[in-house]
Amino acid sequence: MSVSKDYIVPDLYCNESAEDVVHSSDANISVQHFHENLDLSSDEESSIDVAFDSEVDQFLDYSELKRRFCSSSGSVTSRIEVVNWMLKVHSYYNFRPETAYLSVNYLDRFLLSHSLPQGKGWSLQLLSVACLALAAKMEEISVPFLLDLQIMEPRFMFKPKTVQRMELMVLSTLKWRLRPITPFDFLHYFIAKLEGFGNFRSESYNNVISQASDIILRTCRVMDFLDYPPSAIAAASVLCLTDQYVDQISGGFHQRVSRVRKAEKMLQPHEAEN
């Protein structure tokens, strides 16, 4: 099958600008202030503590993967293409944001351990189909058939048996660890720190969740964001939307997400340093 021009992105990850990911002007959300008193139960606080500790244990060094991709323009373009394809399929089926994020997470973690054959674009496409299928099975109530998942003009089509064999290879490589800590594990926690967003059912709260989720998914396209832990990406997305700064937060939170400032600057490259 021919490749749709919609999937060709001219910029390479090595040279891409983070300003293409998001601007604070994209969100029309009133400025709020962080406060220290959270309306969270002790169980929820304990869960957040576990998430913070777990992300440290699972954080991987993607420098070698980035070096490998950035050393070859063809490899970088191929990753852009398959990530864009996964996000388009995610949008078509209205999957949960977590599904899209996990599919890219599986892809990058697999590639961290395996080098695919050079010059064979079908192998990366097959991997992307398998990763998206696994993520959908983890997050979605209704999962399309494997053939129905291969829409939006992919470069290659694969028989279900072929995809299933690739799924098993991914599962083995990831050691069946399909529930990593993601930025979505921290979103509710950080938004709860915003004054005026304590009501989880309010329209403003849901707007922040939706727009922050969009920002997080956009970071999947940019390999530089692999350098940041999930909590930093989640916090930076909320800070961007609400025009807040990490200096306004003190105590253990600031120490835990000390890399938020750098992640936030990547999301808002034109914002003055505070």
TrEMBL record:
Cyclin-like domain span: 84-172
Which Pfam families does its entry note?
A: Cyclin_C, Cyclin_N
Gene Ontology biological-process entries: cell division
Enumerate the PROSITE patterns for this protein.
Answer: CYCLINS
Domain of life assignment: Eukaryota
Identify the keywords attached in UniProt to this record, alphabetized: Cell cycle, Cell division, Cyclin
Name the protein family: Belongs to the cyclin family. Cyclin D subfamily.
Summary of subunit composition and partner proteins: Interacts with the CDC2 protein kinase to form a serine/threonine kinase holoenzyme complex also known as maturation promoting factor (MPF). The cyclin subunit imparts substrate specificity to the complex.
Q: What is this protein called?
A: B-like cyclin
